[in-house]
């Protein structure tokens, strides 16, 4: 089964809802070791060039991630682009394992468990990485 995750942008780490009310959804390879390796260099670059601007940063991060995903598919001439690698949503999915909270200065990684009997998410911060 795929390791799904979502990425949201938050002005304040204690907020429950992201700044622009949307999450980037990643269908697979959502483990911190891979996600952080991909997004941290982008966030450092964007912050240096543009500063903290969640609307632009989230859009450009999604483009950056999709470009990388699509590049992997170029070996197959029948694939124009990936169709399930990334998406946009306004709720936290019940099947994600990680939530990445992007703040002005850090990436907060939360492990997510969904309790189907209570219909609620239980999240625990496992690591915070400054950028």
Q: What does the model show?
A:
Helix content is 29%, strand content 32%. The model has no long low-confidence stretch (mean pLDDT 90). It has a six-stranded mixed β-sheet, with helices on one face. The longest helix has 19 residues. It has one domain. The protein is of the alpha+beta class. The protein is globular, with a radius of gyration of 15 Å. It is built from two helices and six strands, in the order ββααββββ. Helix 1 packs across helix 2. The termini are far apart.
Would you list the SSEs in sequence order as H and E? EEHHEEEE
Count of folded domains: 1
- What are the segments in which pLDDT stays under 50 over at least 5 consecutive residues? none
Task: Kindly state the number of beta strands.
Answer: 6
Q: Please give the largest β-sheet.
A: 6 strands, mixed
- In which range does the helix fraction lie? 25-40%
Average pLDDT over all residues:
90
Count of DSSP H/I helices: 2
Shape annotation: globular
Q: CA-to-CA gap between the ends?
A: 31 Å
Helix vs. strand class: alpha+beta
Blueprint of the fold:
Elements: E1 4-9, E2 23-26, H1 32-50, H2 54-72, E3 86-89, E4 96-102, E5 106-115, E6 120-130
Parallel strand pairs: 1-4
Antiparallel strand pairs: 1-2, 2-3, 4-5, 5-6
Quick gist of this model?
The chain has 131 residues and is an alpha+beta fold. The protein contains two helices and six strands.
């Amino acid at each position: 089964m795929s390791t799904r995750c979502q990425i949201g942008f938050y002005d304040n780490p204690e907020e429950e809802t992201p700044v622009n009310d949307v999450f980037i959804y990643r269908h697979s390879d959502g483990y911190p070791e891979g996600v952080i390796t991909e997004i941290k260099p982008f966030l450092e670059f964007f912050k240096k060039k543009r500063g903290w601007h969640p609307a632009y940063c989230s859009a450009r991060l999604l483009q950056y991630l999709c470009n990388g995903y699509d590049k992997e598919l170029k070996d197959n001439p029948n694939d124009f682009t990936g169709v399930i690698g990334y998406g946009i949503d306004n709720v936290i999915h019940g099947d994600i394992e990680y939530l990445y909270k992007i703040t002005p200065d850090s990436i907060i990684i939360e492990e997510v468990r969904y309790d189907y009997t209570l219909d609620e998410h239980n999240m625990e911060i496992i690591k915070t990485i400054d950028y």
